[in-house]
Amino acid sequence: MASIITGATRAAHSATATILSATQIQTGEQIHTKPVKEDDPVKHVTLDLAGKNIIVGIPGAFTPTCSSQVPQYIEDYDKFKEKGVNDIYVVSINDVYVMKAWKKNLAPGGTGVRFIADDGGKFVGSLGLVFDATDVLGGPRAKRFVIVSQDSKVSFIAVEEDASKSTITESSKVLALL
C-alpha cells in the first residue's frame, strides 16, 4: 500500500511541476506577478517590479548551494543599489516560516534583500521556471535562476542547467552586467 501511495505522490509532483512550468519566460517579455508571501503566512503581497529589480530563484532555503549563493547578494546589496536596483527578491517554493527563518539565519542583523515565499509555486510557475525535485527536495521547486527586470519586463535572464550548482547566477556575474 505504501508503495502505491509513494508512486501516486511522485506522479502527482511530476504532473504539478509540468503544469506549473509553462514556457520559460524570455528577455523582453512582461513578468506577470502572482500573489506571494513575505512575512505573514496569511497575507499575500505582489512584487513591485517598477524600475530595475533582481529576482533570484532558488530551489530551497537552507540547502547547501542556496546557502552559499544568497549571502553574496546580501553582501553586495549596496553595490546593487548603487547601480540603480530598487529591490532584490530571493524567491523559493518554500513556506513563509522557512523563508523568514532562513533570512534571520543568513542576515541576523537584517538586510534589504527580500525573502519571498512562493509556497504554491504560482509565481515561479508563471515564469516557466519550475522543475520536479521530488527525489531531493520532496516536490516541485524553483529552478536556480536570476532575472533582471526593468519596469516589469525581463531585461536579462540566466538559468542554471544544473540546479545544484551556482555559476551564471552568482551575484558577481549579475553585478558585472549592470
From TrEMBL:
Residue ranges annotated for the Thioredoxin domain, each copy included: 9-178
A GO biological-process term: hydrogen peroxide catabolic process
Active site: C66 (cysteine sulfenic acid (-soh) intermediate)
Superkingdom of the source species: Eukaryota
SUPFAM superfamilies: Thioredoxin-like
Coiled-coil region list: none
Keyword S-adenosyl-L-methionine: no
A Pfam family assignment: Redoxin
GO CC annotation terms, alphabetical: cytosol; mitochondrion; peroxisome
Alphabetic keyword roster: Antioxidant, Oxidoreductase, Peroxidase, Redox-active center
Alphabetized GO MF terms: thioredoxin peroxidase activity
This protein's record includes keyword Cell membrane: no
Similarity comment: family membership: Belongs to the peroxiredoxin family. Prx5 subfamily.
Protein role: Thiol-specific peroxidase that catalyzes the reduction of hydrogen peroxide and organic hydroperoxides to water and alcohols, respectively. Plays a role in cell protection against oxidative stress by detoxifying peroxides.
Protein name stated in the entry: Thioredoxin domain-containing protein
Species, as recorded: Scleroderma citrinum Foug A
